[in-house]
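Appendix B. One record, verbatim.
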Amino acid sequence: MMYKKIGFFLIAFSIIFVNFNYKVYGEKIKTAKVLMVYDRENVFGYQDNIVNCIEELLYNFSSKVDKLDIEEYNKGYINKYDYIFVLGIEGKLNKSDFIQDLFNFKGKICWIGKGINYFLNDKKYEVSYFREKTDITELYYTNKRDKKYSYSEMKKFFIGDKWNFTTLNIKQSEKVEVFSYMSDGTNYYPFALKNKNLWYISSIDDNSLLFYVFCDLLNDIFDTKIEDKGNVFIRIEDVHPFRDTNKLKAIADYLYKENIPFIIALIPAYVNKETGYINNMSQNKEFINAIKYMENKGGTVILHGYIHQNRKGTVSGEGFEFWDGYNDAPLNVNIEKLVYDKVEKGLTECVKNKIYPLGFEAPHYAIDEKGYKELKKYFSTYVGQYQSSNKKFTTTAFPYVLRNTKSFNKLIPENLGYIDIDDPLTMNRIKENFEQVSMVRGYTAGLFFHPYLDIKYLKRAVNYLKQNEVRFLDLKQEHNWVMLGNIKIYSDNGNITVEGISNKNKDSVKKINYISKINIMVIIIVSIFCITFLIIFIKLKRIDKNKFLR
């Protein structure tokens, strides 16, 4: 019996060893069922679809997310869910069947914004409705969870915009945990709290400090353990064949010297706005060599559209490509076909010149829901902001990477803004944005820089980020894939592998992942050793048994 156990252990060891040395790229599927109930999708007068933004966020924590207008609610509907998020933009949530079901609900409830006065009429919770306020000017928050913090121990932020906030009274403070406070300059109120199975957040939008506090609190609501250390990326924007190659190389040299990897947002073709003639980068060998030079200095290419414009008379790099910027509306075309055609042309032009993008960024971040779904077929990675509305152009900057959502396989968010030399406060805005984003646990932050600007402006931003001891994101180090037709591009651990293209291109540029090959060799050797040892061990055991019988 003892020998059998030893033999089983050796076999199990070899199997486990093999499994540990193969990388698993699929994300863990989270099975909690989440429902969001809302009274309207956006604040009156604004185009931002807050429901869509929250839905994208929730998919990051669960693979099963549904949303429902309160007018469509039927009794007992919430019973099949584990989490209920209630979004009150106008507060019209007084539907008796819903309120009663919510009161009896055993899972977690997160109520955001107005209408909670209908739910807190009973004595089940140690909090009660107080009133609405529009003169809140300060927010206090900390992401530390080692003890209960008072507002004076939290970081203070100023709220510039006038917003509606719901205030609550706390009946028994020892039974209520307050995660954030707000103030009108005189009085202090809980902004975010937890009592029993109820989480409450006073107000939310989709693009500011309030939104980032909510994003961070989701880690607590879903009991997610996440590292505090974040990532920052720098993206060189609107790099097209008519850019000054000397400036591109100078940027690459500087960032390489600073040991900072960076992203290159490549527009592979440039349209003459007068004639409409398309200048592909294949016609400019100097530009192609400059891109490869930047790659060798730590740059990673993503596809930034194909021509970055869609209207005659518009300059490439300034116009929209997947949106009607003139009428601020979706393009009146088959957007799926348009996206496919532009991606196919862009990738073909890149691959033909031995340049391999690892992600995509829509020009000006403008694209509708159908466009996102089409892009999701071809790219594992999208870099930028999220357009939440299918009616008007508006974007949301998330504070961390989103994975396996409705619109993205992986979204790497840009949220710090860009360097605008016409704005004397441009660095102040970047600093303010970083201060807010970096309070979110596991944040990813990003900014972009146009290569026609003086490099001194980029150096100022880099110096600020380095003073904050940030960790710079290297896109090549992550698992990415691009697939369209016969083109297949993969990256991992700094290596890029290309499949499905002609040997003429493939043999000269395909980077072999030597680490993976070594791992496979080690796995084979160890497996052979374990099997050989096991066979010898069994034979020796039989010899000993025969001796004993004699």
